[in-house]
Amino acid sequence: MAPEADVVVVGAGLAGLTAARRLTQAGASVKVVEARDRVGGRTLNHKLANGNVVEVGGQWVGPTQHRMLALTQEVGVEIYPTYDRGENAFEWNGEMRRYEGAIPKINPAVLLDVLQAQKRLDRMARTVPLDAPWRAPKARQWDNQTVWSWLRRNVASRPAREILTLGCEAVWAAAPGDVSLLHFLFYTHSAGGLDALFDTAGGAQESRFHGGSQLVSLKMAEELDVELDAPVRTIAQDGSGVTVRTERGEFRGRRAIVAIPPMLAGRLVYDPPMPGHRDQLLQRMAQGSVIKCMAVYPEAFWRGDGLSGQATSLEGPVKLTFDNSPPDDSAGVLLGFLEGPQARRLTRLDQAERRRLVIDCFTRFFGPRAAVPEEYVDRSWAEEEYTRGCYGCGVATGGWTEFGDALRAPIGRLGWAGAEYGVVWNGYMDGAVSSGETAAQEALRNL
Amino acid sequence: MAPEADVVVVGAGLAGLTAARRLTQAGASVKVVEARDRVGGRTLNHKLANGNVVEVGGQWVGPTQHRMLALTQEVGVEIYPTYDRGENAFEWNGEMRRYEGAIPKINPAVLLDVLQAQKRLDRMARTVPLDAPWRAPKARQWDNQTVWSWLRRNVASRPAREILTLGCEAVWAAAPGDVSLLHFLFYTHSAGGLDALFDTAGGAQESRFHGGSQLVSLKMAEELDVELDAPVRTIAQDGSGVTVRTERGEFRGRRAIVAIPPMLAGRLVYDPPMPGHRDQLLQRMAQGSVIKCMAVYPEAFWRGDGLSGQATSLEGPVKLTFDNSPPDDSAGVLLGFLEGPQARRLTRLDQAERRRLVIDCFTRFFGPRAAVPEEYVDRSWAEEEYTRGCYGCGVATGGWTEFGDALRAPIGRLGWAGAEYGVVWNGYMDGAVSSGETAAQEALRNL
Prior knowledge:
The structure is a homodimer.
Chain A: E1 5-10, H1 14-25, E2 30-33, E3 45-47, E4 53-55, H2 66-75, E5 79-81, E6 87-92, E7 95-99, H3 108-125, H4 139-143, H5 147-154, H6 158-172, H7 181-191, H8 194-198, E8 207-209, H9 214-222, E9 226-227, E10 232-237, E11 242-246, E12 249-258, H10 262-265, E13 269-271, H11 276-282, E14 285-287, E15 290-297, H12 301-304, E16 307-313, E17 320-323, E18 332-339, H13 341-346, H14 351-366, E19 375-380, E20 393-395, H15 399-403, E21 414-416, H16 429-445
Parallel strand pairs in A: 1-2, 1-12, 2-9, 6-16, 10-13, 12-21
Antiparallel strand pairs in A: 3-4, 5-8, 6-7, 10-11, 11-12, 14-20, 15-18, 15-19, 17-18
Helix pairs in contact in A: 1-9, 1-16, 2-16, 3-6, 3-7
């Protein structure tokens, strides 16, 4: 069977499309196969009844996300700042507090506990090598424990632990008990620190995409050969190439790049079978748990009340919100996240029941006008057959130190890409893009 | 499409075959489909050059394993005691010590530390409900931390922690840092305590099977309709039944029982797709890491030296051995385990290199005659495409409390079986058998 393409790329998310784009730019022929009827992976635009576009998947880009910013510019998509004016809201012990800037008005002893812990974690994170987290001086010790264990030993006050738990849920879509401390520290270093992960202005939530983040993928796909509705079942390698078998036929390349979440890559059938060591790594890379929820109003009424739309709550189930209104202010959109334990509980409810619980939170945070949205939209990524959880993955305790070296290494003619493979901004669009570029370079070197 | 059978069973290991046997005995028609060219799953006989049969998979049965013992008797397989006479050996700080009974001659302070920790863990384990570990009074706290974290906080001396680490590796085929404390306690309670897990006489290693453990499965299969070489790829449910699509055609039943390790069950394609909550559970159930190694000698020479063949070592890579000679004493067989970190390191070597390291351990433990075996056999279960790790699975931290209720619940017309679903002796043959019996009863109730 003769190769139809130099490289077959499995998965038309940001990583796969970027890999395909870079390969094409370098003169290689590429076939992209995608399980879904659309491109974009975990970026997904949704058209509201009022005609505005919002994203039910990833939606932000921030400073230092150089590869994603460069790609965005290259394909001609514009960005604009996330709405970030006015006071933030903080719910604690059943009471709403308003504050300006990054630091809520709470008991100074609690605040000090939080800030000191954050400083220590940032300092620890900087000792974790991004290309080889298992080589950190204390890698073993950190990989043998969860973030929960560290918080319990190192943060004295319970409210401080609750605030840091909220931060963990918001970034990892997982509870502190789910996440290896080493993975937490790697991921933090990969983003440049906890503030970079948490912040709106100056951080990962700084900017949004005109036309929705999926537009970047849609634009790339226009110039590529993408086979949609083609779930891959088997990838076979032989002496001259790779055969990718999908539900819409076989595709043959000299090499392949598998650009889907590692856990899903572990679910494909490989011939010859995946080496045991890498297979066991993939068994330890569970995707996070998140439901993204939006309520649409005629206007962003909270702005008139001097509120930014950014609320945090220790009560939940929505523990974090943003103002997600369209850039022309033609409507008001509140965005709330259900993350970690809250997502796991609420993904089992029907949408009407979930809507009731989410709108109840919005109403507590922003007043009675939040109770009557024009429209409600949500997306639970655990239910998505071709993602099975967001944002990225949480490597289990022991995973990085026992198996980490198998993550990025090619297996014969197969390379790997996706946000989970990113060295910088792992788990983010930027990590997806850079992983696609790295996989493309590696494929080119071996064509 | 008309049902060909009342129930299609996926997987011809002990759980699947037992389910099929019980269904057949109750008058239901059953089709069993199996990916491999053989039955038995994680039990696998191997014929040595000298004609003796040894097992490269699970091989022991012990007291209180009532369902496995009953099945063994029912199919007419005989058991006999594991060789357990003479002195045991213990390697510590490069030195071999010999001792009688269960307790090595080491520093009494270290020993006290070990015994006290074991007593506390046993007491904690008894508070974990076997059918619902997430309902233990301290379930959250225990599931949020690893066994490593608990040992570090509760066991003062490092050698005591090393001995308990060896115990964890030997039972869970995982390092203490890999395993949720709640999972460890559930599993311990499920077996009836740590001694039941660790012990030869009176414990899980008490007896062996004449003809090899796989014989139980082989005998069951003789009376069943088993389709071999039929890896299942898709399981589709509709209003009247289940269609199981394999590489050797489709099989239709009114119900199906999926009797493979949970992680592998997560790799099948379901139509309709698996609910997100259960899918995310399966992402958190990684299989353990173990390589079973045997060296064959003309006779069991260590017996003449007054040794039992049971050695433990804190040095490794082989940390645990047994006398695995045939019951007629016609040869000597030493059995060594590479478990957890040791298995992960050595599964990446070629067999000749691994053999060298294993035989070097045997020689340290049993003297120079161990250096020249007639034959060497090993099996790394991570490499097995249709198992991907043994013994059972280690639920990740947070797994039981966040997702545990999804483990055993049927999804429509699909039930689940396998050692990982067992309530009693989870992870053992006995747990596999009882899980198969439970799944059969549940299917019968719903036919």
